[in-house]
Amino acid sequence: MAGTEFFSGEIATELVKQLITIAKRCTFCKSSAESLKGDIEELIPIIEEIKYSGVELPQFRQAQLDQFSQYLRQGLELAAKVLASSRWHVYKNLQFARKMEKLEKNVSRFLNGPMQAHILADVHRTRIESAERFDRLEQRLENLRLGTNGDGWLKEAVEWNGEEEEIYGFAGVNLGIGLVLGKKKVKEMIIGKDDWGVVGIGGIGGSGKTTLARELCRDEQVRSYFNNRVFFETVSQSPNVEQLKLKLWKQVTGNQIFGSNVMMPQWQPQFNWRFSGRTLVVLDDVWSLSDLEQLVLKIPGCKTIVVSRFKFPTVIDSYYDVELLREDEAMSLFCYSAFRQKNVPYTADKKLVEQIVKECGQLPLALKVIGASLRDQPEMFWTSAKNRLSRGESISESHEVNLLNRMAITVEYLPDKVRECFLDLGSFPEDKKIPLDVLINMWVEIHDIDEEEAFAIVIELSNKNLLTLVKDARAGDLYSSYHEISVTQHDVLRDLAFHFSNRGSLNSRRRLLMPRREDRLPKEWERNMDQPFDALLVSVHTGEMKESDWFNIDFPKAEVLILNFSSNEYFLPPFIKRMPKLRALILVNYGTTNTVLNNLPVFFSMENLRSLWLEKIVVPPLPNIKFQLPNLRKVSMILCEVNDGFNGPATEPAHMFPRLSELTMDHCVDLTELPSSICRVLSLKSLSITNCHGLQELPAELGMLNSLLVLRIYACPALKKLPAGVCLLERLIYLDISQCVNLRSLPEGIGRLTRLEKIDMRECLQIRTLPKSLASLQSLHHVICDEEVAWLWKDMQDTADVRVQVPKECFNLDWLADD
Question: RPW8 domain location, by residue (predicted)?
Fold first, then answer.
């Protein structure tokens, strides 16, 4: 092509020779020839430098230089004509002189215009590339700096100077199944569609996200589909977004953009951008939504893979969560890191190795770091490491630097309130589901936020892969309950919460936590009990506790107490009396049978208690003495035996709980009839009786609850009718009678509920007719029901504005796996 001839320098060199001759022989053209000669002689060294640099120029710059080459070729032809012309042919020589002047102006215009822009572009490009090199060098030096304290960990730091999650790749280690499956699923998302799109690869830190992305970039099928146009860019926490935008735009389109603070051009058909077909852009280690929105190229054929610990649902079209290793893969990776072989050597304690691998939670980064930390250490050190890991403590400086500190980046990046909520998750036992209602109650009390903000924090932590939200089919719906929704958390993330919470002296910590179940309270608590503890949240995890097992500890600032235990009997801690600010009490029994509570008089001191959660407890009868919990707003009884609690000598909850606004009873199998005394708690705004399979009847006095807004009678198969008193609940806005499979009809007077906005009556198999009074429900706008009933609603007059929803069938048996 013309550009190749130009960069050979032959045209320019030959033209200079002829211009010298013209300047000597042709009077008319002498001035222009000498000027051109000077310009081109200065240009020849630059031409030679470009020729031997081996740098491939962008297409638009090559086109401009091709045009300049054409000027020189025209000049060479003109010079030949000038030299061939007779000096006596005046008119012809005047024409040649004008053409020579025009050529001189074209060359001068190029040198003073586009040529200067090329120089600026080269300077800008050099600056960007230098900055990128220095960034990479700085990152490597930082990684090296972590190991320069002379304790022998320099080699480990050097091994980790690559990308954060390059954790696979050991020869002979069995790690292929999860990686192959992940590659297959992501390839299905990016191959076969020609339009632009964004695919996310997510997971917690250290799960192998970057490894999977790099494997995709090396995959032959991917490279073939995208014609080897695959670009991998690391974004990081503090990127130079402007540089990345310009670099990506240049890589994808071949077009250069000059200047800073420019908007990334997007595809518009009227602009003739030069594209080279399909392109895959991988953005690794993305932390900010605003950064991501600026870096995604919306160009036909350009696919983007976003690798991040966070989910960005407003940008990402399809998403793949990296799966953790299988047990055999985890063992193989750990053994290679610890023993440099893929199996447990016969000289090692296999059971101890298996226990440590279990503590790593099948997380690749944890397996590699902890394995390397234990390499060549004596067995006593291994045993100590196992115990420290079970308590959420670091086992070595390498473990803290390479694992906990890396994982901590995600937490430190969170807003203050969200970070505090994340750290609260360490209050619950490992490998257990945490009811969302418990979290919401706790956060509302301890962080002074409302339920909506607390739920938003759960979603944010889920989007950042710091917890897993186990969603019920109706999770997030208006008026939906939280008690059937739960969250889970990876063990390494729980350890990270402990790592943060255990900073500082024991008595000054914001949280006082027991990392695992013990037979008794920690000894360090006993050693420090002579001084008050400043903890706002206290979490205890034990077996059966008797009066003599407790210490007299002062908790003057404690607002939340979580008691996790496994026993048939449990003596409530006497130090509750030393918690004057206690606002939330959570009792969870993980045993196989319901627990009988002792030391009930401690409840008399809970004047500020606002929330009470009882799980798998035998609810005791209300005492026959005058006492109140004047600030108690919310009571939840899950898997409890409740009949004795309602049949005591003084069952008058209205006096004892004068401000109770929410009452939940779930899976209380011995509940056959809701006591009428509850109907005298006139402050109730929400009443939920769910999954109580023995419930046969609701009290006729139910209509006395004139403040009730929400009534859930969900999954109570023995219930055959609703009392007429339901029709007196004039403030009711939500009614849930779903999965009451033997409920035969709605009350005839239900039309009196003029404020009712939503009814959920899915799987009410016996209901075949609807009361005519439903047409009077002026505020009703949403009904959820089965297809067989939906047509009844649609045929009713005056209900045209009601949205009738037929939900998909959902069968969830996850509760069978709970302990």
Answer: 1-149
Q: Do the Cβ atoms of 183 and 216 come closer than 8 Å?
A: yes
Pick left, alpha or beta for residue 673 (phi over 0 → left; psi -120 to 50 → alpha; otherwise beta): beta
Burial of 620 from C-beta contacts in 10 A (0-12 / 13-18 / 19+): middle
The answer to whether the pTM exceeds 0.70 is no
The gap from C-alpha 61 to its chain's centroid, in whole angstroms, comes to 43
Contacts of 152 (CB under 8 A, 6+ apart): none
Residue 637 CA to residue 629 CA, distance in Å, equals 17
Contact criterion met (CB below 8 Å) for 666 and 643: no
Q: CA triplet 493, 495, 496: central angle to 5 degrees?
A: 60
Q: What is the pLDDT of residues 635-687, one digit of tens each?
A: 999 999 987 666 655 557 888 899 999 999 999 988 998 888 899 999 999 99
**Token pair for 320:** 């793949």
Burial of 12 (0-12, 13-18, 19+ CB in 10 A): buried
Give the DSSP letter string of 737-756. Answer: -TT-TT-----GGGGG-TT-
Q: What is the Cα–Cα distance from 49 to 168, expressed in whole angstroms? A: 43
Report the alpha-carbon distance of residue 501 to residue 549 in Å, rounded.
25
Alpha-carbon span 697 to 723, nearest angstrom: 8
Measured between alpha carbons, how far is residue 420 from residues 363, 367, 447, 498 in Å? Answer: 24, 27, 9, 12
